[in-house]
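Good morning N.,

You mentioned wanting to compare the apo and holo forms, so I went ahead and generated the holo version with zinc ion. This is what I fed in:
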Amino acid sequence: MATEINVNGAATSSDWQDRYYHVDQILDRPGPRTDPSFLAGDEVKDFLRNKCKILVIGAGGLGCEILANLALTGFKDIHLIDMDTIDISNLNRQFLFRPADVGRPKAIVAAEYVMKRVPGVQVTPYYGKIQDKGDDYYLQFNLVICGLDSVEARRWINATLVNLVDPENPESLKPLIDGGTEGFKGQARVILPTVSSCYECSLDMLNKPTTFPICTIANTPRLPEHCIEWASVLEWPRARGDEKLDTDDPEHIGWLYSIAVARAKEFKIEGVTWSLTQGVVKNVIPAIASTNAIIAASCCNEAFKIATSSAAYLNNYFMLIGTEGVYSYTFEHEKRDHCPVCGGEALEMPISRDWTVEQLIELLTEKQNIQIKKPSLATPGKPIYFQQPPQLEEATRPNLEKKVLELVPDGGEVVVTASTLPFSLSLIITYI
Amino acid sequence: MIKIWSMKKNEDAATKKRPKTSAAQIRVQKDLTELDLPPTMKTNFPDPTDLLNFTLTITPDEGMYNGGAFTFSFTINTNYPHEPPKVKCMQTIYHPNVDLEGNVCLNILREDWKPVLNLNSVMVGLQYLFLEPNADDPLNKEAAEELRKNREQFLYNVKTSMRGGNIKGVTYHKVLV
Ligand SMILES: [Zn+2]
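and this is what came out, ligand included:
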């Protein structure tokens, strides 16, 4: 019985005949565009189906699509992180969830669903924050795919993967595939940490969240959004003092909603609803299932190509603009030389154990290949010596006479900023 | 898997391990250590090792607010400079662009913020509000109305408020130095 399907059984027993017939057309023989390192046949199939470990970050609109695509193209060892629980408003597009799942963690429900539906796939969920995990966790993966709606989370994972790159260990370089959507617009990109342009390199290109002038909110509201911002920006601190607004707390959203409704009534503005209130305060970007599907599919195709070397992968930024007809283009986003995350390089600085901070600063200002005017120094935790502002200069001045060794451990980092540096310089201090 | 490492080898030795300092933190360090403030502005760090929370005191040496000292709190989050710093006036002051809760109407603090702007631009922008209060972007509507209709009365109200006086039932903080 070749068609016996062993739900959640071992990979081998669940692979029925011709399960991967179509995918194998690509993996069984090289083509004109395949990478020279492509090993057609069993070896690449074994890597994809038995060895490749992939991490999916986000189990929302994009994440559900990504998970389904990966499982159906033959990835078998998938890990999934998401910190949210399922809200009823997710059900319109996050198709791995049903009404009975409302309130349960997205990562766990999505993992269960995909494992049930796609035999032999192991999805390991983690219900929590990406920041809970350390380098050891991220080092175990071959690839990372992100389907997030938060700039902050993306900046974090990008910096983490860039920092993970260890010159002594080729395995430490983890390709990052990032997808994002906004209404009919979306982008997919491939980031090879330290090799190609990173997320931080392109931060200036981002649309920033829509905000309204505070005086418009205060005096001349015209839109329902103005009333909601009035409630959250002005009335919340006025009425609730230092209490922190928790955008996931229904009581907080309810309070804002009732205030915004009253405001809207006063100014004869229509359209303040509970979901708009939640959308404005959480800065929810309109999500369209089909745009998510296009972007998730692009991301997963890139993951497949990178994992198998079976075809040329995206270099490096794909943009989809569906707001005026359909326009898409692909370009190579250039690495920013002075990117604070991947730009420049850390300079190894071997110094004597009894050098003072002042001597280190002198070296930085005098050394031919550096020549920094008025450098300010800090460890990742706190200032060592700051040239400005006056209070911090005074507070850090006593450090000038201290030994560097008292402030920076062997192999420790010092971030140097100065107006003559376009961004910053990192020193790795070693003692001789 | 594609062989990325070989591509990396082709790049000139840019293979050093990068530091752990967050991009936001480096950016704040850069902004602060390159501040170029006139003597009329002074920062204060309650905890000199915490660069993300501090105050700025502005003591205008000309204009209608000459002689006062106005203090603003700055709170910077880890998404800086994607998001602007949060700035509030810590005193109750009589100013058309600052409300009684300390909210400030300054375009670059909200709708016109861009990551290329920095803390220096924000501070200079705040000082400008004291030199040129703007009746067109009112947060304190009565003050804006007064400035527009009767500049003499507005000036008188500013002086009264700065002494800690009462205007139309509101008692203002004494900010004279
Ligand atoms: Zn970068």
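The mean pLDDT of chain A is 90.

Happy to go through it together on a call whenever suits you.

Best,
F.
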